[in-house]
Amino acid sequence: MSFDQTVLVVGAGSIGRRHLANLRKLCPASRIVVLCRPESADDTLLTLGADHVVASLAAALDERPHIAVIANPAPLHVSVAQQMADIGCHLLVEKPFSDRIDGVDRLIDTCDAKGLVLMVGYNLRFFPSLQEMASLIANDAVGRVLHVSAEVAQYLPDWRPNSDYRQGVTAQSKLGGGALLELSHEIDIALWMGGAIVEVAASLDRVGDLEIDTDDCVDLLLKFESGARGSIHMDLLQRVPVRRCRVVGTTGTLEWDGIADRLRCGLSSEGFVDVATRRLADRNDMYINEVAHFLFCVANGLKPVTDGQAAKRVLMTIVAARASAASGCMPMRNQ
Predict the structure, then answer these.
(1) 168, HSE (Cβ side, Cα atoms, 13 Å)
(2) What percent of the chain has pLDDT over 90?
(3) Domain range for residue 243?
């Protein structure tokens, strides 16, 4: 793909740097500008492919980028993206879309009115074995979906062992951290596999010993528009990483293991058999394919797989989960 226009990357954290390096591979002729705090600017950004680094949004707007990757903390996503959309910039916004619903509709409406591509970075949509699971469900391989369950967990200090987890986004509520927001991929997966969610009951807690000020353990109970039920567990506590999804249908069951990169199907009491899928040789391929999809949509005026409305549905589920958790639950009666 040939792309020679100005590209802006907002944020120089781990995901911003990943996108920078991948954009340089995919867009060798582009001028790539990075917007970040002065203390985050270092020579590594130039090594990864940046042509120029700026420290203010005004300077970034002056660059008149054709596309922007918004990879700063979630509470800042919508406000920065809106200013970029106002000047006609196509947008790839990192997940989650935001930490609140405020401003989301205006941003979506602006992009629609201007014919701009708005995509939110739920990169697991580009995991081949998970794509195969969705394809099998769409083609009724296990019949009508009855139940969708998903689980994701990993001990937060192990995410980035060379940095202090307490200083990272995930540990701080003011930066949009916590399990519910940071691990919202699983909500997107549930919507992908099960369709629209109409009811949510939630428990959000801080039950571990991590030095964070936000939730480290989340449990959701879901009801889908189809009548199917679902559940999601997320935590920042488990020492052995887990990422899996199970879909029960009227004629069979599918099980996806994202850590092992394996998909299994069970159609009878004889048990599960492996489903042949393309394996990921490198986890970065998901991010490469995500950005390539975004650029293809920009070049061809197409709607991305995770457009603003799809990401809004994830965020609405998060909002509903927070409301459910805040309302509390009835105590169990002694029997």
Answers:
(1) 19
(2) 93
(3) 128-279
